[in-house]
Fold this protein.
Amino acid sequence: MESFTDKQKEAYSRAAVLCSRAEKSSESIFRKLTDWGLEEIESFPVIERLISEKFIDDERYARSYVRDKFRFNKWGKIKISYQLKAEKINSQVIEMALEEIDETDYKDILEKIISEKDKKIKSANHYDRKAKLFRFAQGRGFEPELIYSVINDITNA
């Protein structure tokens, strides 16, 4: 830290506090550093130090993000993946994090949200109802094949 400027030292301290409160991606911290007035070239050493001291770990961030968005927001793998890509998380890290979702739980969540939505929607006919359910589940980021399967199980039951 002795080679850091005063501006970098302050930014490092602020970023370390942020990272200790909640998981952050290296991209989100990079954006914060530039918002705080650091130039791109000044930000890289700060990010490297935060990573070396384990304040930032994109793999840990991705696993935490996947777990939270699936459990609390009931998002599908497609939506979670897009959001992580927006945070510039490596594709292999995203795949590894998504593999932690239990397939049985994944299908159960989809069945639950489609069943709940099915009770609330109004539709002119059977096809309109299926289309609305499909769009709803697709907006949540679930895979089309799985959505079709679950909708057919629910509407034909």
Q: What stands out?
A: Residues 17 and 28 are 14 Å apart (CA to CA). The chain is about 75% helix and 0% strand.
